[in-house]
């Protein structure tokens, strides 16, 4: 982990989120939990995709989420495993990767500086579908989070920790990135 005088420096994490069991419910809950833990989230369009490397008739909802955290990759993955378990996934099942799932969180990349071009290196078809949906919003799916709708465009999600209210802003990726990097830095005490 990189450090600066006064403490650890945040890393930007690029995370895939998928579900094919009650995905709208599990996505909304996961967005709320991620925002409560890490602050501002950048969420790509939510897309419906065919199952990949799993024999099931249930389509998946997938998205990419970007946020800043001072956790190490190992610490973050351990927290993701706990979150998946809370959502009903059996992390001890040796066949878990070949079964339907309530929630699946995977770290795709981490960086010291926010650079969205890293998404071009993601090879999974479901992650590329989320990136492609920024330009061609086909098969996007709506998620309702505390009465607010998102999923068709890039969105920022933020939780007001005093009130518990969640705010959702949908905009273009460029405009969201302009707003989010200063917000990420401010939340992590870097600005």
TrEMBL record:
Lineage: Bacteria, Pseudomonadati, Pseudomonadota, Gammaproteobacteria, Alteromonadales
Function: Catalyzes the transfer of pyrophosphate from adenosine triphosphate (ATP) to 6-hydroxymethyl-7,8-dihydropterin, an enzymatic step in folate biosynthesis pathway.
SUPFAM superfamilies found in the cross-reference section: 6-hydroxymethyl-7,8-dihydropterin pyrophosphokinase, HPPK
PANTHER family reported in the protein's UniProt record: 2-AMINO-4-HYDROXY-6-HYDROXYMETHYLDIHYDROPTERIDINE PYROPHOSPHOKINASE
EC number: 2.7.6.3
Signal peptide range: none
Example GO molecular function: kinase activity
Location of the 7,8-dihydro-6-hydroxymethylpterin-pyrophosphokinase domain: 14-111
Protein name: 2-amino-4-hydroxy-6-hydroxymethyldihydropteridine pyrophosphokinase
InterPro entries found in the cross-reference section: Hppk, Hppk_sf
Keyword Nucleotide-binding: yes
GO BP annotation list: folic acid biosynthetic process; tetrahydrofolate biosynthetic process
Similarity comment: Belongs to the HPPK family.
Enzyme class: transferase
Entry keyword annotation includes Acetylation: no
Pathway linked to the protein: Cofactor biosynthesis; tetrahydrofolate biosynthesis; 2-amino-4-hydroxy-6-hydroxymethyl-7,8-dihydropteridine diphosphate from 7,8-dihydroneopterin triphosphate: step 4/4
Keywords: ATP-binding, Folate biosynthesis, Kinase, Nucleotide-binding, Transferase
